[in-house]
């Protein structure tokens, strides 16, 4: 007879191969190499904090700084979005334009932390909410800040920081 073999997808995994074609089974036949590829989805975690001294480095705990104690606090209620490249890129005015589909959004917690759960393999970009009167100090804005998830690897903390501009003439260290 003719049969199809399918995999029951487990929660937290993404099937990375197509289901095999239908197979014809004859009496006494041995069927081999019916394979399925799977990827364990990952969580993307990080923090958003107030880089009060503008150095691009998060001082999570109190550090002496010019006679004062500086501990930079996390920023709550900031929207963080995960986008995935969707479609072919194109050139426009000498720049590569990559279509993005937002696939997840979350708010930072009271401590500035965020988590986006269940990202499968692909090319992604994290976006942070733009806040009036604030300037990003880390990571430095870049044209191509995509990252690929293709293996089960620790991504580290894709931390974002914001420097509140109190003095319009202030230039953060580079």
Characterize this entry briefly:
By secondary structure, this protein is mainly β.
Structure description:
This protein is mainly β and 174 residues long. 0% of the residues lie in helices and 42% in strands. It has no helices and 16 strands. It is elongated and about 85 Å long.
Number of helices: 0
> Strand-residue fraction?
35-45%
Write down the overall geometry: elongated
Strand order of the largest sheet: 12-5-16-14
The helix-and-strand class reads: mainly beta
How many beta-strand runs? Answer: 16
Radius of gyration from the alpha-carbon trace, in angstroms: 23 Å
Helix content: under 10%
Please report the distance between the alpha carbons of the first and last residues: 69 Å
Mean pLDDT, all residues: 75
For the biggest sheet, the summary is:
4 strands, mixed
SSE pattern: EEEEEEEEEEEEEEEE
- Low-pLDDT regions: 150-174
């Amino acid at each position: 007879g003719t049969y199809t073999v399918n995999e029951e997808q487990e929660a937290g995994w993404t099937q990375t191969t197509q289901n095999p074609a239908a197979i014809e089974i004859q009496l006494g036949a041995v069927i081999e190499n019916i394979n399925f590829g799977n990827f364990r989805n990952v969580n993307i975690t990080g923090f958003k904090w107030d880089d009060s001294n503008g150095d691009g480095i998060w001082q999570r705990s109190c550090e002496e700084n010019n006679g004062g104690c500086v501990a930079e606090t996390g920023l709550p209620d900031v929207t963080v979005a995960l986008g995935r490249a969707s479609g072919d890129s194109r050139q426009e005015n000498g720049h590569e334009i990559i279509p993005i589909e937002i696939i997840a959004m979350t708010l930072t917690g009271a401590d500035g932390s965020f988590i986006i759960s269940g990202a499968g393999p692909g090319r992604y970009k994290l976006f942070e909410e733009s806040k009036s009167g604030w300037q990003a100090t880390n990571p430095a804005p870049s044209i191509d800040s995509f990252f690929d998830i293709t293996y089960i690897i620790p991504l580290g903390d894709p931390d974002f920081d914001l420097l509140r501009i109190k003095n319009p003439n202030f230039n953060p260290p580079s």
